Amino acid sequence: MNQEFVITGMTCQNCKKGVESKLNSIDEISKFLVDLESGLTQIEVSSLLDLTSIEKILGSKYKVMGVETEHSTSKLSALFPLFLIFFYLIAGASYLQLPQFSVDGFMISFMGLFFIVFSFFKFLGYRSFPSSFATYDPIAKLIPLYGWLYPFIETALGLAFLFQFKITYALVISLIVLSVTTFGVLRSLLSKNKIQCACLGTVLNLPMTEATLIENLLMILMAIGLLLV
Q1: Strand, coil or helix: what is 54?
Q2: Between helices 80-96 and 210-228, what is the axis angle to 10°?
């Protein structure tokens, strides 16, 4: 019988060879086909394998996710954690502007809370985040160290916005960082690669969807709007 899943964390041909070697060591697998770019893996097995057990064999660098089917969780349900976080970010940013609400102040507070919260989730799965992030971010793919530094960059930007320290510099850096990531997200969506979005780290299994693109574009528009004020 055939089984399909997606392996994230492969960034080069050596990664692919390592994954193939470990898949080859699993007795139940007779044939396999691994696509480096999308991570889509097709195997022929004598009996269905548990994805968690495959992930343990591959090692902590890689994550194994099921392929979406008609019976899979809907996009809306899968993205519920993201929507819930945005609700709290909006509520928190609004509260910080009391008693005199300011649109500019709201956007600065929102961006600060956004970076802090999102960096928190990245730190929860810090060991596996860089490899997942490198599957779509152009800089992280080219320079692996950037993936390891990215959660710290987000934390620094979040603190800068919340304490209103060097706001102009923080906005420019945010614009550059988010633009690069957005380009990678857009390219992945256009190529229809089924990969995990690393915006909330790897602790939450968040699929790469249009919502991820909208989230980044919203932050970019806020940065541009504040720079033009």
Answers
A1: helix
A2: 20
Residue 5: which H helix or E strand, with range? Answer: strand 2-8
pLDDT of residue 128: 81
> Which residue is it, tokens 């802090």?
116
Please tell me whether residues 196 and 91 are part of one structural domain: yes
pTM of the model: 0.66
CATH number of the domain to which 55 belongs = 3.30.70.100
| pLDDT score for 51 | 85
- Of 20, 39, 66, the residue that ends a domain is 66
- Domain assignment of residue 199, given as a range: 75-228
* Nearest Cα residue to 62 out of 112, 132, 123: 132
Confirm if 135 and 11 have CB atoms less than 8 A apart: yes
86 & 37 share domain: no
> Cis omega before residue 130 (within 30°)?
no
Instruction: Give per-residue pLDDT as tens, 12-42.
Output: 888 899 999 999 999 889 889 998 887 889 8
Q: Structurally, how many domains does the chain consist of?
A: 2
What are residue 42's DSSP bridge partners? Answer: 4, 33
> DSSP letter string over 140-198?
HHH-HHHHHHHHHHHHHHHHHHHTT-SHHHHHHHHHHHHHHHHHHHHHHHHTT---B--
Indicate whether 29 and 83 sit together in one domain.
Answer: no
Decide if 65 contacts 6 (C-beta within 8 A): yes
Is residue 175 within 8 Å of residue 226, measured between CB atoms? no
